Amino acid sequence: MAAQLTAGSGTAYQVIARSRRIARVRGLLVGSILAALVFVVFCVSLSVGDFPVPVSKVVPSIFGQGDRATEFIINRLRLPRALTGLLVGAALGMSGAVFQSIARNPLASPDIIGITAGASVSAVFAILIVGVTGWAVSGFALVGAILTALGIYVLAWRQGVSSYRLVLVGIGVGSVAVSATSYLLTRSKVEVAQQALLWITGSLNARDWTHVRSLSLALVVLVPLLSILVRRLRVLQLGDDTAAGLGLPVEKSRLAVILVGVALAAIATAAAGPIGFVAFVAPPIARWLCRSPGPSVIPAALVGALVVSVSDFVGQHLIGDTPMPVGVITGVVGAPYLLFLLARVNRVGRGG
User: Fold this and answer.
1) 342-352 pLDDT per residue, tens
2) Confidence at residue 351, expressed as pLDDT on a 0 to 100 scale
3) What would the DSSP string read from start to end of 187-227?
């Protein structure tokens, strides 16, 4: 009997080890393909424009191996915008993976539960009422996102924070923030309101090396923190009772993970405005590609970077003569997915 149990345990261990090995290989393969696609789109976006540059000259120009005119076009005019798009997309993808995993709900992304709406109302207040521009607007957006997230967490707290309550409270707070933004816009002059409208659409226009540096510095701090917390995030996905049974301090871990997720969404929104639906669609695409029930943080970051880069390229070069803000293109992609998800949830009769 003991020999049978030992043999059975060994077989089960081998099956689990084989499954984990297959998942790791699939994750590495998907990550490599996504990274290659991001690199291709990145190079193409740098080569296309009013002054076309051959793709073969893009990478040498980045490292100072091109002629002076090509280096000016690539490094001064196009590279900051392309890098800002990559970093913003990666931050939104990781933030969406964090929120959807911790809430165990595909609707729980920063742009659905009101965090980016809070950043928007704060930025619009800064533009229309305070009268500031540039980096001051980004600072207001950052503070607005953080305060909104804290407000959602406090309002959702009932001896702990359940995923269902977090989503419902977030949607309600987001609706209030959207209403406040509309109120501020209707009370302002048309000329000033146009500036605020451009910001809340989400755009990469006029992004420079200052945006790239600030995003890079923030991600250098946040990505290692998130990599440390990913194990706790996976345990939290099992449910509060199971996580507590495994010895995890549930609320402290949840709060730490949420803070990192909020910070990722906040720095992305502060840099480029509320680019909608990237944090919403990137995590499920990454999970589907990896066939993983877990958070798939790095693949979600790569999908987010790819979505923002492709959307910005389409908005700049493929739709008419007037460039479209990247937020408009991501909205066109993300809105049908939201409708599909709501219809699917309604059909199967569950909350997510």
Assistant:
1) 676 656 555 44
2) 45
3) TS-HHHHHHHHHHHH---TT--HHHHHHHHHHHHHHHHHHH
Cα(334)–Cα(315) distance, integer angstroms: 15
Place 221 in a pLDDT band, splitting at 50, 70 and 90: very high
pLDDT per residue over 326-338, tens digit each?
A: 988 998 877 777 7
The amino acid present at 190, given as its one-letter code, is V
Place of tokens 């290659």: 36
Alpha carbon of 268 to those of 88, 122, 140: distances in Å?
5, 15, 13
- What residues have CB less than 8 Å from 224, skipping those under 6 apart? none
Q: What's the rounded Cα separation, in Å, for the pair 203 and 327?
A: 6
Residues 331 and 276: their CA atoms lie apart, in Å, by: 6
* Rg (the chain; Cα; Å): 22
Torsion of CA 290, 293, 294, 295, to 10 degrees: 70
Measured between alpha carbons, how far is 319 from 321 in angstroms, rounded to an integer?
Answer: 7
Cα 157 to the center of its chain, rounded Å: 25
Kindly state the percentage of the chain with pLDDT values over 90. Answer: 26
- Do residues 137 and 200 make contact, with C-beta atoms less than 8 angstroms apart? no
For tokens 């798939």, name the residue: 296
Q: Tell me the two tokens of residue 185.
A: 């816009």
Mean pLDDT of 176-196: 85
Question: What predicted TM-score, i.e. pTM, was given to this entire model?
Answer: 0.88
Q: What is the mean pLDDT of the segment spanning 108-118? A: 86
Whether residue 170 contacts residue 152, with contact meaning beta carbons closer than 8 Å, is answered with: yes
For the stretch 12-40, pLDDT in tens is: 667 767 777 787 888 889 999 999 999 99
Taking residue 165's Cβ as centre, other Cβ atoms within 10 Å add up to 16
Do the beta carbons of residue 163 and residue 104 sit within 8 Å? Answer: yes
